[in-house]
Structure prediction request, 1536 residues.
Amino acid sequence: MRLEFVWNIEFQKMEMLSSSTSHTPELILYEFKQQNLPACKPVLKPSYVVEIVDRYDSECVPGAFRGNKVSFIKDSSLPKNCSRILKVRKHMKAPIYIYYHLDNYYQNHRRYVKSRSDQQLLHGLKSSNTGSCEPEESNNGLPVVPCGLIAWSLFNDTYTLIRGIKKMSINRKNIAWKSDRDSKFGKQVYPHNFQNGTLIGGGKLDPNIPLSDQEDLIVWMRTAAFPSFRKLYGRIEEDLEADDVIVVHLMNNYNTYSFGGKKKLVLSTSSWLGGRNDFLGVAYISVGGSSIILSIVFLLFHIKIPR
Amino acid sequence: MTRGRIRARLRRSHLHPFSCLRPNANNEEPHPLSGPGFSRIVHCNRPDRHLKKPLKYCSNYISTTKYNIATFLPKALYEQFYRVANFYFLVAAGLSLTAVAPFSPLSMIAPLAFVVGISMLKEALEDWRRFAQDMKVNSRKASVHKGDGVFGYKPWQKIQVGDVVKVEKDQFFPADLLLLSASYDDGVSYVETMNLDGETNLKVKRSLEVTLPLEDDEAFKNFTGTIKCEDPNPSLYTFIGNFEYEQQVYPLDPSQILLRDSKLRNTAYVYGVVIFTGFDSKVMQNSTKSPSKRSKIEKKMDKIIYILLSLLLLISSISSIGFAVKIKLQMPDWWYMQPLNPDSLYDPDQPSKSGLAHLVTALILYGYLIPISLYVSIEIVKVFQARFINQDIQMYDEESGNTAQARTSNLNEELGQVDTILSDKTGTLTCNQMDFLKCSIAGTAYGIRSSEVEVAAEKQMAMDLEEQDTQITNGSRCRKSAHNSWEDSRGGPEIELESVITSKCENDQKPAIKGFSFEDNKLMDGNWLKEPNTEVILLFFRILAICQTAVPELNEETGMFTYEAESPDEAAFLVAAREFGFEFCKRTQSSVFIREKYTHPGQLIEREFKILNLLEFTSKRKRMSVIVQDEDGQILLLCKGADSIIFDRLSKNGRVYETTTAKHLNDYGEVGLRTLALAYKKLDESEYSAWNDEFVKAKTSISADREAMLELVADMMEKDLILIGATAVEDKLQKGVPQCIDKLAQAGLKIWVLTGDKMETAINIGFSCSLLRQGMKQICITVMNSDAVAQESKQAVKENISMQITNASQMVKLEKDPHAAFALIIDGKTLSYALEDDMKHQFLALAVVCASVICCRVSPKQKALVTRLVKEGTGKTTLAIGDGANDVGMIQEADIGVGISGVEGMQAVMASDFSISQFRFLERLLVVHGHWCYKRIAQMICYFFYKNIAFGLTLFYFEAFTAFSGQSVYNDWYMLLFNVILTSLPVISLGVFEQDVSSEVCLQFPALYQQGPKNLFFDWYRILGWMGNGLYTSLVIFILNIMIFYNQAFRAEGQTADMAAMGATMFSCIITAVNCQIALTMSHFTWIQHLFVWGSVTTWYLFLLLFGMLPPYYSEDAHKILVEALGPAPIYWCTILLVTVACNLPYLAHISFQRCFNPMDHHIIQEIKYYKKDVEDQHMWRRERSKARQETKIGFTARVDAKIRQLKGKLQRRSSTLILPNCMPSPCQ
Prediction:
C-alpha cells in the first residue's frame, strides 16, 4: 500500500441565507450590500491517494500446478476460485476504484487493435462491415457479435470483496465512458454466437443484455496504449478504515500464464489529478528547478560579464 | 520618307575607307558550295515555294515555353516525382492501397495530391507567363512584300523564308535577312548589334552592287533570285552563301546579312530577303535551353532528405527485425491474437516474410520523418517572396514604370548567398550615353562640374571626416595629430583634393542638353575669346566639329541640329561643338559646313570645310583624322585619338602642352572619364598632293595587303602633330551605380566586369565606378601585338600568357602592404587561351586574389565560360547581370541571372531569373531581399526537419511498445493534418514574413549580408543542431507522456488512459511544443504571425472538439475525446504545459547563451534598435555602422580610405625624410 499526497482544493459552499428561489436584481443587490453573496471558499489541504496493489497470478495457482500454470488455467474442470487478504493501512475515502492490472499484454498490437468492427458494435447484425474482425469474424458460418479479437479475449476474472463478515457492494456501472455507452455500443445490439467456437478466448457475455450495458466489454475494448495496463473493474462506494482487513474472493479465469504476464488487483482512491502519480510532481519540480538554475546562471553571468 | 530620300543621295562608303572595302570585282568568285552543311535554298520573293518539304523551313514563330498543352502533364509530373521525397511519397501512396499500409489510403494520397497539385499549378502559371512573352514578340508587325510591289504588315510569326521585308529605322529585324538595298544609294546601312554581342558602335552592312536598283516597293514586283547557303548555325560572324540573280552567281559574306534581334540605325529603311526564320536564325541558334536552376540550399536540402531517408530505412529495419523476432519468439504465446489463425502479415512460422512485409509498413509509417509538405511549403513561400520582390516600391523605376520581377521564384534564397557578381558594362553599369564634361585646351583645364565618381567620393569623405572629428573629441592623441596633418594637407598645393572637397555640385541640376554637361563660364557664350590662346581654342572647337563621320539632322521643332553618329562619344563632341558655337549643320559628299557663332561677333557665319580625306577610327588605329581644306585654301590635318597614340606622334614643337595635358588626362582618367587627345598639323599643298597620290594608289590596289598598305600610308600622314588639348567625356553611369557598387563591395561581394567593349573604355568605366583607382596595381594580361602573334605558334602564345599570369601571381604574393589592391585586366583574345583547361585554374587563382577583374572584348560565349569558371572553380555562388542578348549565355550559366529591363531587347530579361530596371536596385535585391530570403528559407527548412523529426520519432518509440507491430498511437486524421494544416501555416509565415532586421538596417549594415555567403544559417552544425533538437523534443514528449499516463487513472473518475487518450495527449503536446518553438525562432511578429502560430494551436483544439462531435462512424476513437475525456482532466493540461516547457527549455537556453556570449551581428543590431540607441546615441550608431563595412578594396569608400592613407603616409615621410613620394606607376600602358 502506498500513499500519495496531492494538494487538494475543496470548495465549501456558503449556504444562502435567503431563499434561493428568487434571483431578482434587488435581492442580489441586497445580498451584495449585506456582504452575503454566495461564495466559494477554497481551502488548500493536502489530499493523498491510497493504493493497494496485490499480485495474485502465481499465488492463485494451486501448488500442484505451480510447474505448469498454463495447463491449470486451460483446464476448465479445475476450480479457479482463490482468496486473498488485503490490509488497509490508511483510511481510504470513497469512492475507491478497483482495477485489474495486466502485464506483458499487447493490447496495442496492430493485429489486435484492428480486429474489431465499430459498425457492428453499434448496429449489430445489421452491419456486415466486419471484414476487419478476422480471424474472429464468424463462427460455424454465423457472424459473431461482438466480433474481433478484442471482444473475444475479454477479461473474465471476477472479484468479490468482503470486509469482516459483510460483502461489500461493488458498483460496476458507469465505469466506461458515457459517450461509448451512448453512441458506440448499440442499445439494441445483443451478443450473438459469442464464444461458441472451438477456441474459447476470454469471458462470455450475457446474450440478454445489450452491448451498451456490458460495461466490462466497453472498458476492455478501449485498448490500452502500453503492454502493461490497468483497467477499471468497479467502484466501492464506502470508506475503508485503516487496519481494515478485506478478503477478496476471486475467480482466476483469465490466462496470462502462457505469455508470462502478471495479474494484479488494485484498490485505489483518486484525487483531482487522477491516480497516484509521483512522476508528474517530480517532473514539474525538475523542469521548474532547471529553469530557476538556468535563470540564476544567466543572471550571474550578466553581473559578472556585463555586455 | 522624304527625309530618307534626301539623305540617300549621300554615299556613305567614302566615310569608311577601311571597313567598307568592297572586294574587287575580279576576285568575286562564287563560293564553291557543296557537301553537307550547305543545303539551304531560298527562293527570294517566292515564299509560296517554301510551303512544302523539302524547302519548308521552320516558321518564324518562337517559343521559349517549357511545356505545351500535350506535354504539360507528363513532363510536369515527371519533374515533380523526380524529387526524391515526392517519389517516396508516390510509392508510399501506392502501397497504402495494400494491406501492409498502417494508414488509410486517403491519408496518404490526399496530401500528396495537394502538394503535387499546387506545385504543378505554379509551373503552369510560370509557363503561361513565358508564353505570353513569346506571343508579344511573335505578334510584332513587320512590313512584308505581298506581291505586285505592295507591302503590308504581317505579324512576325507569319514571316516565311523567301519573303521580302522592309525594315525601317530603329526597328528590329524579324529574321535573318539578306540585305538587298538601303535608303542610301550605295546600299550601306547601319546596324546596332547590342542585343547580339553587346557592342554599342554601329556596324556597317552593305548590299551587293547588283541589288542596288531594288530601291523602292515597286521594284520588287518581279524580283526573283535564289540563295544557296549554309545550314542554320550559331556562328554570328560567319556566313557563306551564293546569290543567283539574273543568271549570275554572286558570293555572299556576313556583311550582307542582317541578323534577327539587331536593329537598324541611322538608315531610313532597308529591304531584305528572309533567309533564316525562327529557330533557324543565328540568334536563336545561339540561345540555349534555359537550364533549370536550383539553389544551393535546395541542393543541400536534398542531402538532408537523403540522410533522413537513411534514418528512415534504419529505424524501419530495426522495427522490422524487432517485429520478426517478436513474432517468431513471442507471438505463439499470445493466445489472444490467435497465433494459430495467422494472416500472412503476422505469421509466426514465416517471420522473415512477415518481417519484409512489415518493412514496407514501417517505411510508410515513419514517413513522417520526411516532410511531405516541405517542397510545397517552400514553393508557396517562394511565390510570396517573389511577389514581395515584385511589389517592392523601392525597386520601382519611375522612368520605365517597371518594377523588379522575380521571374523564377526558385532562387530567392540564392540571392542572399552571392559571392561574385559578373556584370556586363553597356546598358548595365552605363546607360550608353556620353556627356561632354571637361576639356583641357592649351594646357588649361576647363569644366568645373564633377563627375559622378567625384561626387560620390566627396560625400563619403565628408562623412569620414566628420567621423574623425568626433573621434578626436574622444581624446585620442594619435588621431588628433593625424587629423591636424590632414587639415594641413588640405591646403597643401601638391595634393589635388581641393577640387574634390570644394566643388559643391548640385546633383539635382541635370544637364539640360543631352550629351553635354560641361559647365565653365570661361568657355561658354563666347567667353573663350577672352581667354589666352584664343587661336588654339578655336582650333580645338573646329576639330570637335569637323573631325567626325556623323550626319546632322534638323529638328523641326527646336531648330536645333541633332546628330546621328556612329558612336555616342562623337555625338557628344558634336553637341559640345554646337554649344560652344560651332554648329555642324550640313554634310555633302565632299564638304562639311560649320555655323560659327562667335568668331565674328554678332554674326552667324557658315563656313565650308572641304574634306579631302578621311582616315576613320578603328580599334586598332585608335585614332581618326580628317584632312580638310578651309575657305582660305589652308590644308589641315585634324586628328583625335587615344592619348598614348597621339603623344607618340607629336612633333618636336608640338609638345608645348604635353606635360600639363598629360597631367589633366591623368586626372580625368582617375575620376572615370573617357579621354581623347586632339592634335593637328598644317600641310603644304605639295606635301599633301604627294601623300594623296600614294593614298589613292594604296586604295585602288588589288593586292591582298591593301589594308596594310592603307594603314601604312595613313601612318605616314599622321605624324609630327601639334597637341592642342584633350577632351573628357563621361560615359554616363546609370543612376546610383557607384553608390551601389560601393555598398555591394562593403557587403563583401566581388565584382567582375565582363564587357565586349575596348580595353580603354572598360578601364575608364572601371575608374568611374570605383572598381579601379589610382594606386591600385593593374595587372594587364594581353597578347602582344595581335597580328604578329597570330603567326606564332599557339604554344608560344600560351606560354607567354602563362608567364604573365605566373609573374602577376608572384607579384601579388610578394606584396607586403595589406592595403595594396590589384586589378586584373584581360582581353578576350587572351582570355580564349586563359580559359583553356590547362591554364584556367592558374588564371582563376590570380583572379580571385585581385580586388577587381575586368575582362574586355569578350564574346558572349566567353562571358558564359568565365562565369562557369568562377562558378565551378570557386564553388561559390555567382550572379550575372546584363541587359543584352550577348549576356544571355552568362545569365543562364550563372547561379543567378539578373536581366536589366527597360532598355529595348528582352532576351536578357527572358533568360534571367530576376529582372530589375536599374543596376542600383541590385543592392536592395541582394542586401535586403537576398538576405531576408536566405535566412527565411534556411530557418524554415531547419524548422521543418525539426518538427518532422520530433513528430516522426514518437511514432517509432511507440512502436517499441507495441511489439513493433506498426500500430500508430495517433488517429490517421491527426497525422494527416499535422503537416498540411496544423504546423504548416506558422512555418509559412516564418518563411514569408520573417525579418531579422528591417530593410533600412540591412542597407545601413551591408556586412550583415555576409551571413549568407558564409552560410551561417544553413551549415551542417546548425542543421544537425536542429535535428538534435527534434530528437530531444521527441524523446521528451514521449517519455514524459508515458511516465505520466503509464497505468494510472488520469482523472478523478478513475478511468485509465487508453490509446486514444494517450495519442491525443501526445499529439497536443507536439502541436503546442513545435508551435512554441517556432514562436521562439521568430524575431518578427506581426499580427499574421500571431494569428498563424497561436491560431494553429487553437485550430488543433478546435479540430479535436469538432471532430469529436462527429458520429463515431467518422471520428472513431476520437469521438468526444476532448469534451468527455481529456478536457475535464487537469492532468491533460498539466502535461501539455510541462512538456512544452521542457521541450523548449534547452533551445531557449541556447539562444540566450548565444545572444549573451556569442552574439551575431544581427543580434547586436536588433538590440541597438530595440533600445533606440540609434536615436539616442548617434555616435555609437555611426561607429557600429562603419564597423559593419566589409573590408574591401573597391568602391569609392575604399578609394577614400586609400587617399587618406596616402596623405598620412606622405606627411609622415615628408616630416622624416623630406622626400616626396612618387605616384604609383601603373604598368598598364
Remarks:
- Chain B touches chain A through 66 residues (CB under 8 Å).
- The first strand of chain B starts at residue 40 and ends at 44.
- Chain B has five domains: 69-136+292-332+344-373, 159-286, 396-431+733-784+800-926, 527-730, 928-1164.
- The two ends of chain B are 48 Å apart (CA to CA).
